[in-house]
Amino acid sequence: MAHLLIAIPTLSLTACSAEDDGGCIPYPERPGTRTYYGNLLDGGVPTNDTCMDVCRPQVANAQSCEVDSETVTYLDGGTGTRPVIRCHYISPAYCGSDGRMPEGLQAARVEARCALGVHFAQMAWMEAASVPAFLRLADELKAHGAPDSLVRAARRSAGDEVRHTRAAGALAQRHGASVPEVELAPVAPRSLEAMLLENAKEGCVRETFGAVVAGWQAQHAQDAQVREALRRIAEDELRHAELAWAVAEWAEELLTPEERQRMKDARLEAFHELERKLGEEEPELALIQQAGVPSRDASLQLLRGLRTLIA
Question: CA–CA distance from 266 to each of 104, 200, 260, 263 (Å)?
Fold first, then answer.
């Protein structure tokens, strides 16, 4: 996929539309679980009927819960049991132009006076969330014996996202918005295939498309400060897209034919989800004009062009 760095800027220039309504990049909702230990706040023993009293204040978008128990060993050698509360939640769907959504990302609320403030605050939040996503990727690549160049590139990408967070945060503040804190639920170690499936969807499709859209915004935003910020971000995001495809290429020989097919299916599913979401979104005119968000027709043309490029 070395041709991405050359082809993507051209793709951003040539896919155009005169429509005013448009779309953004959707990251779908995801299920997750957070675990808590102990009794209710009033000291009572939790049950399946009362565990939401713990989950709702602690977990955004909590949907359901269940109670179990586990054996614990005390310092004196004795044993006992303690309640285990599992809170099941839905990670937020997110529309943005950059970043790699990490597993376990908790929902956040943006406080802003206008659509531009919301847009850049969400963007900064997603960039900040991408930092732990890339650090985890680096650790997993190292654990699975990937070349040092890929590990270093993942860590460099985390550093890029720190800069992106600051740049997008400054734009959000300029429009009267505050950037929410990133909160992640604990995650379990995962297999090589699980890591690669996430890379296929988040990196090879959504992040690659995010690089295309960032380049589009850098060329079409009427706000000069936005164009300059997105120009720098787009350059980094192109490297992140290249990293995703380099990881996929490295792992190709490690996978069975069945696993390789699952990677292809995951990318295809991500493309279809993007296409469906992009056809539904209609951001405000201010986002299209000032932030350079591509119109719905332009977004779909960009996506279809990208799919042709990397098919």
Answer: 19, 6, 10, 5
DSSP 104: T
Query: DSSP states of 31-70 as a string?
Result: EEEEEEES--TTSPPP-TTTTHHHHHHHSTTEEEEEEEEE
**Residue 216 CB partners (closer than 8 Å, separation 6+):** 12, 15, 292, 294, 298, 302
Do 62 and 154 have their domain in common? no
The residues facing 32 across adjacent strands are: 89
User: 121 with 223, same domain?
Assistant: yes
pLDDT digits (tens, 9 = 90+) for 154-211: 999 999 999 999 999 999 999 988 898 998 888 888 899 999 999 999 999 999 999 9
Name the DSSP class of 20. S
Q: Based on the structure, what is the number of domains in the chain?
A: 2
Q: What residue numbers bound the domain in which 293 lies?
A: 4-29+92-310
Does 237 share its domain with 198?
yes
Neighbour-count burial for 27-49, b at 16+ CB within 10 Å, e otherwise: bbeeebbbebeeeeeeeeebeee
Does an H or E element contain 117, and which? Answer: helix 115-143
CA distance 255 to 14: 36
> What does the pLDDT read at residue 128?
95
Per-residue pLDDT tens for 109-149? 776 677 888 889 989 999 999 999 999 999 999 999 999 99
Residues 53, 190: one domain?
A: no
| Residues with Cβ within 8 Å of residue 139, at least 6 apart in sequence | none
